Amino acid sequence: MTENNSVLFLDGNAAASLLQEIFVPDISIAEIRCVACGFASTVGSLRLYAASMGAVLRCTHCDGILIRAVHTRHGRWLEMTGARHLRF
Amino acid sequence: MIEPAIAPQPRLEWQLAEVRAIVVETPRVKSLLLQVPAWQGHLPGQHVDIRLTAEDGYQAQRSYSIASPPEDALLTLTVERLDNGEVSPYLVDDVRVGDQFELRGPIGGYFVWTVATRGPLCLIAGGSGIAPLAAMLRHRARRKVRAPTLLMYSSRSLEEVIYGEELDAMSRGDSDLRLVNTLTREQPEGWTGYRRRIDKAMLAEVGFPPEQHPKIFICGPTPLVEDASRFLVELGHPFPTIKTERFGPTGGLAS
Amino acid sequence: MAGSPISRGFRSRRQEQTPRNRVPPGQYVTTDFPVLSAGPTPQIKVEDWTLSLQLAGSLLGKWSWAEFEALPQTTIKTDIHCVTKWSKLDTTWRGVTFDDLLKGVGLAEPPTPYVMAHSDGGYTTNLPVADLINGRGMIVTRYEGLPIPPVHGGPARLFVPHLYFWKSAKWVRRLRFMEKDERGFWESLGYHNYGDPWKEQRYDGD
């Protein structure tokens, strides 16, 4: 069993369809700034964890959570408390 | 570094795609050419979601990169059959011309290149990760733009090189396009090319130097993507110039 | 989902291969052990590891690794069920039961009705204590006889196999007793608060 962290995450771009159901402009090219460390990234470049349960998008600089999202048959959840802003 | 936003997109809606043609690419890989009636176009590198529904209502959804350029009328998805997969065996073994399934897209403006982007283009692919990069190359060829371009493509054997002949022909006819294959498991007699996984030395030998500011796209299995991007950073390429698309084990693209 | 056209010939192959009486609805059996994490794998040295039981502001008990390993050990062989639909049968785990943790701090019964499990990396999950006592919950350190690898939650994870496996928090470090239920990481984002696989309680609203 691998202990390599890298197989645990995908690129933020892979969360695009989950998030795109909520946003009108293309979320994957939006700039997002981390509340914890101030680093600005493009959403598509974030580290996407737990893709099979939803999306946990983490800062490439500090690993802080920027976006959490889940889509179930009962609705969609979106939490962005880790993001200072999104810029489209 | 942060590209300006593209115009707002229509909300993603499921449409019905119909299989118009099937191309056998390699023993485990087929391309499906799809007619999508209300298709509004896409940018090279984007992907789609597809959704299959069984008679009992069970559904499975996966993402696939669009392998065709926006200049093509039909949408091409290239699918590798994964033995433990739920969807890929159906798409590769069972799907026939005339079959339909739900599709939505295009999705993901992040992993995108068009001929409007200046500068050298460095594409690194492993296995079926070639699909979105093929869309970029085919777009580049159709628009007859001679941006200096490198494709470094890692495959297990010659017979597993997807679009092999097309890529060879493309590079033969275009002195600004360099094609470097590496065959990691099995090589034909007389093979003079690389025989190992992509590593730092290989990238240093054939890649554009950082001073030329190439735009870099890497797509394939996670270990290859992880290694290649790390080596490129070590060779001096700024992290924001490297865009990656990992084909992970679960979730994400294709299984 | 209503109104989706049928894809000719498509079936869920995974579910066909599953013995239906053994696994909950909607699950398929795997022989792999898929890894799913909400964040990077913490790399924890056992010399630095501790496990705490907390109630309001105070510490009911705290064990170092050596102290934890000296507690009564229990081995269990059982099935596990992930909300992402895979089930794994006959898995063997070893660790300390929640009952033995309570005994270890001199408690005959849990002080509150609920617990929040806190893990390295920030993950949380909530449970009624009723689902931890009487052998239903453990803190495990061995899988198939070997130390649990970090990607699967080592050095120690919570283990509550009768619920969906997201409740078996990886890298657990702290069990906080709560008077009132609070929702953890996935429970606050659309997943079911309880998570009984036999009732297919995957999502909030199921």
Fill in the keyword field for this structure.
heterotrimer; A: 88 residues; mainly beta; 1 helix; C: 206 residues; Sulfite Oxidase, Chain A, domain 2; six-stranded mixed sheet; five-stranded mixed sheet; 3 helices; 11 strands
Q: If you had to describe this structure to a student in words, what would you say it looks like?
A:
- The complex is a heterotrimer of chains A (88), B (255) and C (206).
- A five-stranded antiparallel β-sheet of chain A has the order 1-4-5-6-7, with no helix packed on it. Chain A has a three-stranded antiparallel β-sheet with strand order 3-2-8, with no helix packed on it.
- Chain A has one domain.
- Chain A is globular and about 35 Å long.
- The model of chain A has no long low-confidence stretch (mean pLDDT 90).
- Chain A has one helix and eight strands, in the order E-H-E-E-E-E-E-E-E.
- Chain A starts with 8 loop residues before the first strand and ends with a strand.
- Chain A has 88 residues and is mainly beta.
- By secondary structure, chain B is of the alpha/beta class.
- Chain B folds into two domains: 15-107, Translation factors (Elongation Factor Tu (Ef-tu), domain 3); 121-247, Nucleotide-binding domain of ferredoxin-NADP reductase (FNR) module (Rossmann fold, 3-Layer(aba) Sandwich).
- In chain B, the strands form two sheets. Chain B has a six-stranded antiparallel β-sheet.
- The longest helix of chain B has 13 residues, at 130-142.
- Residues 1-5 and 250-255 of chain B have low confidence and may be disordered.
- Chain C is mainly beta.
- Chain C has one domain (25-32, 46-199): Oxidoreductase, molybdopterin-binding domain (Sulfite Oxidase, Chain A, domain 2).
- Chain C is built from three helices and eleven strands, in the order H-E-E-E-H-E-E-H-E-E-E-E-E-E.
- Chain C has helices at residues 13-16, 65-69, 98-104; strands at residues 28-29, 50-55, 58-64, 74-81, 86-97, 114-119, 124-128, 138-143, 146-147, 157-159, 172-178.
- In chain C, the strands form two sheets. In chain C, strands 1, 4, 5, 8, 9 and 10 form a six-stranded mixed β-sheet that branches. A five-stranded mixed β-sheet of chain C has the order 3-2-11-6-7.
- Chain A binds chain B through residues 4, 6-7, 9-14, 16-17, 20-21, 24-26, 28-31, 40, 42-45, 48, 50-52, 87-88, and chain B through 2-3, 5-6, 8-9, 11-12, 47, 49, 63, 104-105, 107-111, 222-223, 226, 240, 243-246, 248-253.
